[in-house]
Structures are given as C-alpha cells and as structure tokens.
C-alpha cells in the first residue's frame, strides 16, 4: 500500500537515492532539506512516516522533534544519522523515534523499517471523534489530530482542562466532546459564558444563593456548580471573570465544595471543569487581573485550538459539513464547486469556524443556483482589504486610494468620512466574526467595548444582523 513519506535530508545525493528507493516501493515521497521546511510541510498536510537526518543546515532534526510531535503525534519517525555515537542513539530512543539508522545503511532495510513503522503506528484517535460517532468535531488536519489526541488523554480521568484559542475555533465543541466521550456522559453538561453574565450576578449564577442573600434574592437558587453535579461544567471566557468570583472558584476547585451566596453551609460537588478562554492570560496574570494560582488550577491539561487560517485544509470539509447542516435546518439543498471551495480556503477567517459556518449558511440561502460557485462566494465574503498583499496592506491602500479619488466629499471633511468608510466594514467584519457579540468584537479589535458601541450606533450598524445562528 502506498504511503506518504516525508524525507528531511540535506545531502542531495542521499536524498535522491532514498527517494528513488521508496518510490520504487510505491510510496509518495516529499523531500525537504531543513527543519523550517519540515515544520511548514507538517502544517500543510499529514504524512504516514517521517525519515530525518539529524544535522540539518538550520538546526538539529532530533532536538526539535517535540515540534513534530505537537502537530503529528502519531507519525512514526525514523532517524538517519552519520553521527554514529551512542549519545545519538540514546537521544533517538529517548525521543521515542521508531528506528535509528546509522549511515551508511542498507536501502532494503530502510524500506522494511518504513513498512514496519506504518504497520505498528498507533491508531489515530480521531476515528473516535469524528462524525462516525455522531460527534460534531470535523477536520483531519495535523493540527486537529493533535487536539484529538489531547482529548483522548483526558477521557478516562477528571483532570481539569483549559481550552485556548481564538473566538469561534470550536472550544465549546471540544468541551462537549470531552463530556460526551468520557465517563461522565450520563451526567449533565452545563455551560456558563462568564462574559455574558453581569459581574454582580456571576457568583450567584455559579454558586447559587440563599433567600435574602441580596436585594432581589426572593428565593433560594441552585447555581451551575450544583446543577453540573456528576457531570461537566464548562466555564467559557474564563478571562472575563471578576476577582471575587475568581477567588470563590479557586476555593471550590481546591476543596471540591461550594458555598451558596449568603449561605453558611459548605456543599460537596462532584464536577469536572473544562474552562476556556480566547484571551492570553499571561499578561493578565502579570498585571494582576487574573489569579496565577487559579490559572495553575485550571491549566492542568492545556488544549490549544489553532485558528482556521492555520489549518486551511479543513475548510473544504467543514464547508461541506455546514451545507449539510443548513439543509437539515430547512435551507435549500446546495452543492459547491471546486473553485468556490478554493476561494473559501483562501479566506483568512478572523472569526474562524463560526464565521465559516455563518457564511456557508448565507451561501446556501443566497445562491442563485443549486451549485454554489466562486462568484457567489466572492459576493458573500466580507470585504478583503489586503487580499493580494496582506503583509504590506497594499490592497487596502489601493482601495483607500480609489475611494479618495472616486468619493472624496467636497466639503473638506475627508478625514472623518474616510474614517467612517473604513470603520464601517471593519466593525461589520468584527461583528460577523464574533456572531454579533459586541464584547468579543471589541476584544478582537483591541478597543473599549463602549467605544465600539458608540461608533456602531453612530454608523447605524445593527449588531443583531450578525447574531449567532447556533
Ligand atoms: N471542528 C469543528 N467541526 C464542526 N463544527 C465546528 C468545529 N469547530 C467549531 N465548529 C462550529 O463553529 C461554531 C463555533 O464553535 P464554538 O462555539 O465551539 O467556538 P468557541 O471557540 O467556543 O467560540 P467562543 O470563544 O466565541 O465562545 C459552532 O457552531 C460550532 O459548532
């Protein structure tokens, strides 16, 4: 059976000989000569086996194997090395590589080792996690394989998990998958979005309150912790939690007990915590807005979801999946052609999978034909300021230049008019990316939420138009 092999070797003659020998065996071989190229290729696609030299022009192929493991945890690695020292062999076996071949080596033996490596490869855990099981996590990119592998590691225990990643990358879905596949699946799954609850109500929401605990507490209420007893509590946007709630949460995590607001009694709860954040908590810890001790309590098992633009190979599969969902929700049945999928794949998706889902639903609704084509995609995608020249913003400069010559107001208010012309699509884009959530849109733009509110009112943008459909 043909396998896809990544060969990392900077000696051209050796690379050619190995490539030819493995191609004769019927394998596909992609060769490269540096650590950086290796890492780039691993991001682009998955390989069945990697063969690597150690001494490469830009680094040590073995010392950097951790990076390979992060993206391709199950891929067997065969090390080829001219440094026939014990130290190299020990380093190779310590790194968990499949085989170590001191140079010069026998090509038949190498071909045999490749066959063995593929045959002994640990089963990819994703098989348990994709649609086959009725679970919603889609995507077979190397990056998602790493996520699946981490998920499988927490299914047989109750370790606290911290899911990080930009808005819309699927953090809540990961929490649901952990719950549904783990031993707590028969218990409740309770999700709390910390950012969506006013600060003064958050503690009562999480821990409940006794009657009379505060004005308006007319009767006793059970909080999310107690509701999640025996199951999983998903704490979304943990970075938005005010200090007093952080302290209370830390105490609950340390003791496994909670106290309702205004209550005296401590109540034991059996809850698995999965927390999530789209913010970088490190600077928040440094400036004192997030408790360091709470961070360590939550970050027992970190799972990072890369942004969609770093796993573009998943875009087409996700788009097809969402077309199916759209149809199931009563939208017209559509298919999509290759060029349209390629256009979706090229887009940068600042709002990640959520934005892709929203656009696919819009496409299903608006397409003039049964088959969605590229023109329809181009119409639906938000204005791309720098498509041709993102690094320098050249496309954007061009667009502004055109706007200046074509639409320049005559009354000398160019600056304000230009700002408005610029802000309108920028805010619309941010709102589309965050499903209409103004707080997140403000975070995405790095501006104050009140500033955003004020400007969108002035510009007559309606955030509800971008409201989440899920
Ligand atoms: N891998 C995936 N496969 C299928 N659907 C996905 C995937 N990732 C995300 N989605 C879909 O994208 C949308 C956003 O996902 P989700 O709410 O889990 O993101 P999030 O990271 O928790 O966002 P936020 O930080 O804004 O809360 C949902 O509709 C979800 O079903």
TrEMBL record:
UniProt xrefs under InterPro entries: AAA+_ATPase, AAA_lid_NorR, CheY-like_superfamily, Homeodomain-like_sf, HTH_Fis, P-loop_NTPase, Sig_transdc_resp-reg_receiver, Sigma_54_int
A GO MF label: sequence-specific DNA binding
Positions carrying 4-aspartylphosphate: 53
SUPFAM superfamilies registered for this protein in UniProt: CheY-like, Homeodomain-like, P-loop containing nucleoside triphosphate hydrolases
Sequence ranges assigned to domain Response regulatory in this UniProt record: 4-118
GO annotation, cellular component aspect: cytoplasm
Cellular compartments annotated: Cytoplasm
Keywords per UniProt: Activator, ATP-binding, Cytoplasm, DNA-binding, Nitrogen fixation, Nucleotide-binding, Phosphoprotein, Repressor, Transcription, Transcription regulation, Two-component regulatory system
Nucleus found in the keyword field: no
BP term (GO), one: regulation of DNA-templated transcription
Domain Sigma-54 factor interaction: 137-365
Domain of life: Bacteria
Major location (coarse): cytoplasm
Function: Member of the two-component regulatory system NtrB/NtrC, which controls expression of the nitrogen-regulated (ntr) genes in response to nitrogen limitation. Phosphorylated NtrC binds directly to DNA and stimulates the formation of open promoter-sigma54-RNA polymerase complexes.
Protein name: DNA-binding transcriptional regulator NtrC
């Amino acid at each position: 059976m043909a396998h896809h092999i990544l060969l990392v070797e900077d000696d051209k003659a050796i690379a050619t000989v190995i490539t030819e020998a493995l191609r004769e065996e019927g394998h596909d071989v992609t060769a490269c000569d540096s650590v950086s190229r290796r890492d780039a290729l691993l991001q682009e696609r998955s390989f069945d086996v990697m063969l690597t030299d150690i001494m490469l022009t830009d680094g040590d192929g073995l010392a950097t194997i951790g990076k390979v493991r992060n993206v391709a945890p199950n891929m067997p690695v065969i090390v080829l090395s001219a440094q026939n020292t014990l130290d190299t062999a020990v380093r190779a076996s310590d790194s968990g590589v499949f085989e170590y071949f001191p140079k010069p080596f026998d090509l038949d033996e190498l071909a045999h080792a490749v066959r063995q490596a593929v045959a002994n490869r640990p089963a990819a855990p994703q098989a348990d996690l994709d649609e086959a099981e009725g679970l919603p996590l889609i995507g077979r990119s190397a990056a998602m394989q790493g996520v699946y592998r981490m998920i499988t590691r927490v299914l047989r225990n109750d370790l606290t998990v911290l899911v990080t990643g930009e808005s819309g990358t699927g953090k809540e879905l990961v929490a649901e998958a952990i719950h549904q596949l783990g031993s707590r699946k028969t218990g409740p799954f309770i999700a709390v979005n910390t950012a969506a609850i006013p600060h003064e109500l958050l503690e009562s929401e999480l821990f409940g309150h006794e009657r009379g605990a505060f004005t308006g507490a007319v009767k006793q209420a059970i909080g999310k912790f107690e509701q999640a007893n025996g199951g999983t509590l998903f704490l979304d946007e943990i970075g938005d939690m005010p200090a007093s709630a952080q302290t209370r949460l830390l105490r609950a995590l340390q003791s496994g007990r909670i106290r309702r607001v205004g209550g005296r009694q401590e109540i034991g709860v059996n809850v698995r915590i999965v927390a999530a954040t789209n913010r970088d908590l490190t600077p928040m810890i440094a400036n004192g807005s997030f408790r360091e001790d709470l961070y360590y309590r939550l970050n027992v098992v970190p799972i990072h979801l890369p942004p969609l633009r770093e796993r573009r190979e998943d875009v087409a599969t996700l788009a097809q999946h969402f077309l199916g969902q759209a149809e199931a929700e009563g939208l017209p049945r559509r298919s999509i052609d290759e060029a349209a999928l390629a256009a979706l794949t090229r887009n940068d998706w600042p709002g990640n999978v959520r934005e892709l889902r929203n656009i696919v639903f819009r496409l299903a609704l608006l397409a003039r034909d049964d088959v969605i084509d590229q023109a329809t995609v181009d119409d639906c995608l938000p204005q791309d300021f720098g498509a041709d020249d993102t690094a320098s913003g050249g496309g954007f400069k061009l667009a502004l230049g055109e706007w200046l010559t074509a639409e320049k107001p005559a009354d000398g208010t160019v600056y304000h008019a230009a700002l408005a012309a610029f802000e309108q699509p920028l805010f619309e884009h941010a709102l589309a990316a965050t499903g209409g959530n103004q707080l997140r849109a403000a975070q995405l733009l790095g501006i104050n939420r009140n500033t955003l509110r004020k400007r969108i009112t002035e510009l007559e943008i309606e955030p509800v138009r971008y409201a989440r459909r899920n």
